[in-house]
Amino acid sequence: MLTLLLNLQQNFLILMNGLEYSKHLVQSDLAVAVKKMELRFGVYHSMYEWFNPLYIQDRNNDFKTQRFVAEKTMPELLELVNDYKPEVIWSDGDWEADYTYWNSTNFLSWLYNDSPVKETVVVNDRWGRGIPCKHGDFYTCSDRYNPGKLLEHKWENCMTIDKDSWGYRRTASLKDYLTTHELIKELAETVSCGGNLLMNIGPTADGRIIPIFEERLIEMGEWLQVNGEAIYESHPWKSQEDSSTSGVWYTQRDGNVYGIVLFWPKQELLYLHDPLPSNKTVITLLGYPESLSWKSNDKGLQIVFPSMSEAPGKFAWVIKMTSLTKNKMKARRKV
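The structure assignment produced for this chain is given below.
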């Protein structure tokens, strides 16, 4: 599922080709356009505003008053849902006060039972101090949360290409940005462990996406064009990372198992411990036209890769394995 997250803060006007557009018109146009493309429309909403005088007043009163929530936060959330009908609400900015101050339970009760999106909407877990990683349709827990293991509850890794900032930084240097390989590694680990990946970029003040962000997004898209079969509509497999060869992360889809290989195997030989092939198993490299040779013995599975010059893409490669078995099998060779 691809979701556009729209941040609704205070009222604003956008100057576009000499015309003024209110926030309502812009958000309405975005919602309509996204839904026409058969994408899921979602909104990011910050519960608090650092310098809002009503919020400062409530905070100074140890959150025993709720003027900010009653006059700003709740009306805004109701407007978001009723006017734009998002299917994802990504809440944030909750950590200074308990859920009782934010009136979170009353809003969520209305959202799930009486709102116009009650049948489809999902929310994250940032609805009050102490709530993250405990309540929500999907957990975000903390920024850049990556447990590295399979969790029972759906979760999301919300992270940034800029290692230190969610916004644009003019002072950032090349070393401050994750490489495409690092981003694909983050994606492989996250999806293998049952999570979603939210990858953030910060536009400039005038709305531009700087070249290094553009390059990362294009290269991620190119990689997914070849290897997306292992990502989209996939599910975690019985193993996440191979138990003997680090840097190989598994997913499964439609009865097939995929191994996302984050390195090029030495001498074109990949050794895996966890997949157990059968006589019907076929192993391919996504984007490569021929099946791969393999052999299996008590120590595991050996797969022969083509030369790197013949392999599709770069950064990471995906093997697809069909007709695996759950039972250990005797040594044999498949050519």
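Interim note for the steering committee: The first strand starts at residue 3 and ends at 8. The radius of gyration is 24 Å.
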